[in-house]
């Protein structure tokens, strides 16, 4: 089995066939022609003004609350650096996005995972911790098509979370990169829409246009936004306006909406195939959320069943992420299956290989 | 006096008329056409491979020692985060680049300034500190056309510094963004050329192509490079390949060399005018290095003469940086004059205004 034939369920990357290369070329040319002097000069650390103004209008906030940077992860890192002390604590869903866990870990703050039980946040566990006197500064969440589980948080849980954040005075950090990638069913309101004053919203165009643009953003309360902006300026002066202007031009031409439509057509059959193959191969042997969108399905293997090790994966022609990265503790029985960059055929074959690697 | 007429000696920015917009447009189009799938996908944290390979050849190091990112300042911030503890100490020229001082200050390390006396590093002071037992981890320097003084370090001082770094086991961090912008005279060897094993070299294309590309790089010993790479990946996955590919294409077409030639023609008369006007207006009232290149001339005002405050600057139609930012302590009698973004006429008028603001 050569590397060429390995089916990779590793990172959550979009497929290259989804990149609107020609259109981005056109946008690059247009913005350089129209606004080259501004784009090629140093800029403001908060980001390219037209994009920030557009985002401010979208999220009904002031421009000063919008920070655009080199991906949303870096903005989260900056927020952590300006606002967290080692004596603070942060709550996270467990499992959660591994890179975010790494960033919070570096801050030296106390991290508390609140379990996702088959995709449902264990609100009783959360209340127990709060009742016991724990006072997080932030609760980081991905309410829509969660990474790595695929879960969507029900409306009641969203409302309960906001109520608790108000009672106990913590901010919800809502990470929304997959929110617009819904292939079936109806969207629920974002936490940010329900309670903008309690929510820091972050997202990016990596999954909606292309990761290579490195354009992400964060909507923050004014004081925190100013702290992040100043720290960003002191650290990297500004992120590239060129990339931000390309994204803005793409949006203004109506191409983001069109692109989203195409992505949904591309990803919908992939998700459907993954779910039907899982049903055939893993029924009774694992539990999983059946998401209606996003990038991931997360498998919780049944008691006593473990994730195949690297050697077994290689033998089966598979590559998986190390799932322990998604958990503060544990993760040995969890498998994340990113499905967007694999064809339906590869997904079928991949799930079969996973099944063989585990059960044969 | 309206804002429109204010002459700004504030940041070291290139003039917009220096930006090769059309050529960058062509490069953007070419690289997206040729390599769009790669540029628009997630990439390696160390940077776009062809640019790294080219830099590795230029600096005669392995590709693994080259990290390309969103400006060299951010790479320095990352180096500081991965390698400095509060108990460490760092030496810097005094005065030095204010943004770098901010980054080192944040690390909580002990900072020691080694005075630049009329552009000459006070080597006796340095040896005294070393003899007293101080052991810096890094000595950050800008040997060529220093920011903010304009000084070029003589060869003997370079050799002495390397000798001391070898004896006492510290790294020299050589920041070289202005090195290629020499308008008169002959270049001296870079510290990195003299002793690559003791020097971390950093530079960027902000001053050689355009700041808006946000492409900087760092050459490090292999172990430190790997630490920076891993930390960068955990923080921002990768900096934009698109921008790095544009810079690379620009270089490959021979346009960097051409651009440098044009920049020198543009900046040479600006420097010459600034120096002759200073001679006419400040002789006997200040001392300054007479640089043969770069972006800055730094004035040390004579004893008892102070930098005009903001109100006096405004009244005179001037804007200056707060020079205290360039010093660990002091800076009240220092004025940095960035000259590249002002025409010879503006420079003449600006120096006259500065003179009037101080002496009338």
- Number of helical segments with 4 or more residues of chain A: 12
Low-confidence stretches of chain A: none
The chain pair with the largest interface is: A-B, 44 and 44 residues
Order of helices and strands of chain A: EHHEHEHEEHEHEHEEHHHEEHEEH
Global shape of chain A: globular
Strand order across the biggest sheet of chain A? 2-9-8-7-6-3-4-5
Report the CATH topology name of the largest domain in chain A.
Answer: Aspartate Aminotransferase, domain 2
Radius of gyration of chain A: 21 Å
Helix content of chain A: 40-55%
Domains of chain A, number: 2
- Determine the mean pLDDT of chain A: 96
State the fourth-level CATH superfamily of the largest domain in chain A. Type I PLP-dependent aspartate aminotransferase-like (Major domain)
CATH class of the largest domain in chain A: Alpha Beta
Terminal-residue CA separation of chain A: 18 Å
Structural class of chain A: alpha/beta
CATH architecture of the largest domain in chain A: 3-Layer(aba) Sandwich
Q: How does the major sheet of chain A shape up?
A: 8 strands, mixed
Beta fraction of chain A: 15-25%
């Amino acid at each position: 089995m050569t590397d060429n034939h390995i089916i990779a369920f590793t990172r959550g990357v979009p497929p290259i066939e989804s990149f609107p290369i020609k259109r981005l070329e056109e946008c690059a040319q247009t913005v350089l022609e129209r606004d080259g002097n501004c784009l090629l000069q140093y800029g403001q650390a908060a980001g390219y003004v037209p994009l920030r103004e557009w985002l401010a209008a979208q999220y009904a906030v002031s421009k000063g609350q919008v920070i655009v940077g080199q991906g949303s992860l870096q903005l989260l890192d900056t927020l952590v650096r300006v606002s967290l002390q080692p004596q603070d604590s942060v709550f996270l869903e467990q499992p959660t996005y591994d890179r975010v866990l790494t960033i919070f870990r570096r801050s030296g703050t106390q991290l508390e995972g609140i379990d996702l039980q088959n995709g449902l946040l264990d609100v009783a566990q959360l209340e127990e911790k709060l009742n016991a006197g724990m006072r997080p500064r932030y609760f980081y969440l991905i309410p829509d098509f969660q990474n790595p589980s695929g879960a969507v948080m029900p409306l009641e849980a969203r409302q309960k979370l906001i109520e608790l954040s108000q009672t106990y005075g913590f901010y919800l950090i809502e990470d929304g990169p997959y929110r617009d990638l819904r292939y079936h069913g109806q969207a629920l309101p974002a936490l940010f829409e329900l309670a903008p004053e309690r929510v820091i919203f972050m997202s990016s165009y990596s999954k909606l246009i292309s990761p290579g643009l490195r354009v992400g953003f964060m909507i923050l309360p004014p004081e925190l936004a100013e702290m992040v902006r100043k720290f960003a300026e002191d650290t990297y002066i500004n992120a590239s306006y060129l990339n931000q202007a390309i994204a803005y031009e793409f949006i203004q031409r109506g191409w983001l909406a069109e692109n989203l439509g195409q992505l949904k057509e591309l990803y919908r059959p992939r998700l459907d195939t993954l779910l039907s193959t899982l049903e055939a191969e893993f029924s009774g042997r694992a539990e999983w959320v059946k998401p209606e969108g996003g990038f991931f399905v997360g498998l919780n293997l049944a008691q006593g069943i473990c994730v195949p090790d690297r050697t077994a994966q290689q033998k089966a022609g598979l590559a998986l992420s190390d799932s322990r990265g998604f958990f503060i503790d544990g993760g040995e029985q969890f498998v994340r299956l990113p499905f967007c960059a694999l064809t339906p055929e590869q997904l079928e074959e991949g799930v079969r290989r996973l099944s063989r690697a585990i059960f044969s």
